Amino acid sequence: MKVFKFGGASVKDADSVRNLARIIESHKSEKLIVVVSAMGKMTNAFEWLIHSFCDQSSTTKESLDHIIDFHNAILWDLFPDKKEKVYVAINELFYQLQEVLEKGRDTDYDQTYDSIIGFGELLSTSIVSHFLSKESVSNCWLDARSLIKTNSDFRQATVNWEETEKNIQANLTHSIIVSQGFIGSDKNGNMTSLGREGSDFTAAIFGYCAKAESVTIWKDVEGVLNADPKHFPEASKIDKMSYREAIELSYYGATVIHPKTIKPLENKLIPLYVKSFIHPENEGTVVQKSMEFDALLPSYIFIENQILLSISPKDFSFIAEDNLSFIFAKLAEAKIKVNLIQNSALSFSVCFENSTNKVEHLFSLLKGTFDVRYNDEATLLTIRHYNEEVLTKMTANKTILLEQKSRNSARFVLR
Ligand code: ASP
Ligand code: MG
Predict the structure, then answer these.
(1) What are the pLDDT digits (tens) for 167-194?
(2) 348-405: pLDDT as tens digits
(3) Residue nearest to atom 6 of ligand 1 (CA)
(4) Dihedrals phi, psi of 284, to nearest 5 degrees
(5) What domains appear along the chain, each with residue ranges and CATH number?
(6) CA 180–ligand 1 middle distance (angstroms)
(7) In this structure, which residue's CA is closest to atom 8 in ligand 1?
(8) Which atom of ligand 1 is nearest to the CA of 200?
(9) Ligand 2 centroid – CA 117 distance (Å)
(10) Ramachandran region of residue 414, left (φ > 0), alpha (ψ -120 to 50) or beta?
């Protein structure tokens, strides 16, 4: 059994669905679980719908029409014969969605969100499954809500692994399964979601529970690159890396693989392939146990729009446990996600994303006890497996506001 995951970009229009079907077709003789996300940017469109619905705004209908029109356009292109069964299935989903909207909002925003957001995946997988059947790829559509059981922590649900494993194991009889990424359900049958971009994680859940021989994430890039080409035009593909390296990269801010994806795969030593759906014949990247290849190529992770705060006690006292615990409590209170810290005898520096409200809140919490200075519009650059040449090149013509090195990583706050 192999697991394939296709994200929004791989089902963004009718031609992408045809391309996906060709990839599945070429693996037709294997046992597959195919996990698919919502089409294109539909999850964002569903978020607008939810937002206007909860605000009781007049744009609710417009948002809903946009979603319906988008899917219909793809349907008409893929299934010119309007008598095809897929139309019944999709209209049923539209009907269910409208029913949720008519029932009215739940008092809990997050629960309302989850009762709607997953329709993106329900629609995309129905279209994909029917199209595969039309292309003579026999397959079974499974509702992830009846397989992936979670707690009721809406929008960020935690998986009940035991139950999920039982459910998935009981459904492995079909040779090609199509199911949704990102969603599950709680013990009362309410739809839940695993956090934005959670479909990679769903693929890992299926991989773990089905004891798959591999999981493949199909993307619009050639594999995992050693930098975002937007910041670093010479970016190149990493052929092989360890689970540990993949976790480190996402910890430092790389966004290729959803961070929760790696652990379940590592636990069962299931290799993760990241491959291009545009050039499926190419090798891609494999993430596996061996760390032997990690240092072959430096990796660069850029995080923009950072602010670097330098915090010093007004009474000239040392930065020690009491000050530190006070500062951390205030950072948590202002809901700031810290990207880097450093301290000296008299000052504590902290780097995080510059969002006006949070920064102002933090300033107001600290200003009685501390002097606070800051630099904004900074970039946090992390270089894994660096060498001196790379460091010189990457910091040339930049002001280094702060620098931190460990054996494998060099980090700079730059302007
Ligand atoms: N469709 C969901 C999202 O865009 C899940 C995913 O694509 O991974 O967040
Ligand atoms: Mg997505």
Answers:
(1) 999 999 999 999 999 999 999 999 999 9
(2) 999 999 998 899 999 999 999 999 999 999 999 999 999 999 999 999 999 999 999 9
(3) 197
(4) 75, -160
(5) 2-219 (3.40.1160.10), 299-414 (3.30.2130.10)
(6) 10
(7) 197
(8) 8
(9) 12
(10) beta
